[in-house]
Amino acid sequence: VLETPSPLPEPSTISAMQQPQPLENRAPSFLSSQLLLSSESTPLMQGAVLDEVWKLVDKYYIDRSYNGQDWEKVKNNYQDKLTKKGPNADEMKIVKEMVQTLNDKYSRLLDVQQYAAIQKYDLIGVG
Questions:
Q1: 78: which of 38, 40, 47, 98 fits an S-S bond (Cβ 3.0–4.6 Å)?
Q2: Contact 90/40 with Cβ under 8 angstroms?
Q3: What are the tens digits of pLDDT across the range 34-58?
Q4: CB burial class (10 A; 0-12, 13-18, 19+) of residue 7?
Q5: What are phi and psi of 81, to 5 degrees?
Q6: Pseudo-torsion of CA 85, 35, 110, 71, nearest 10°?
Q7: Measured between alpha carbons, how far is 120 from 61 in angstroms, rounded to an integer?
Q8: Distance CA 62, CA 106 (A)
Q9: DSSP state of 37
Q10: Left (φ > 0), alpha (ψ -120 to 50) or beta: where does 68 sit?
């Protein structure tokens, strides 16, 4: 059974769809969610940032040996480290340490302010 294609949207709708979102509402194009852009007033479950970053590296990192590391084991070690430090742990600091184990000058974790500072240059992408 062939379905009839849906009609094209009205031009006024298209222009509304193309309006860029304010920077504070946009996640970096390579993120799978807006997790890292959550405001401080929105509490995140401990380990949420670590899990998100780990998954992104696991999915997109080119060196599948992860600099000779067992990436799953690295995740477990840093989850343990975060748990031992308790609810007041600086998760971003711990996650930055995890990313630094890759020993790759091109891989780094940016906080919201750092990302906003470079976003004006639109450096995200392949090329």
A1: 98
A2: no
A3: 454 444 444 568 899 999 999 999 9
A4: exposed
A5: -60, -45
A6: 60
A7: 25
A8: 11
A9: G
A10: left
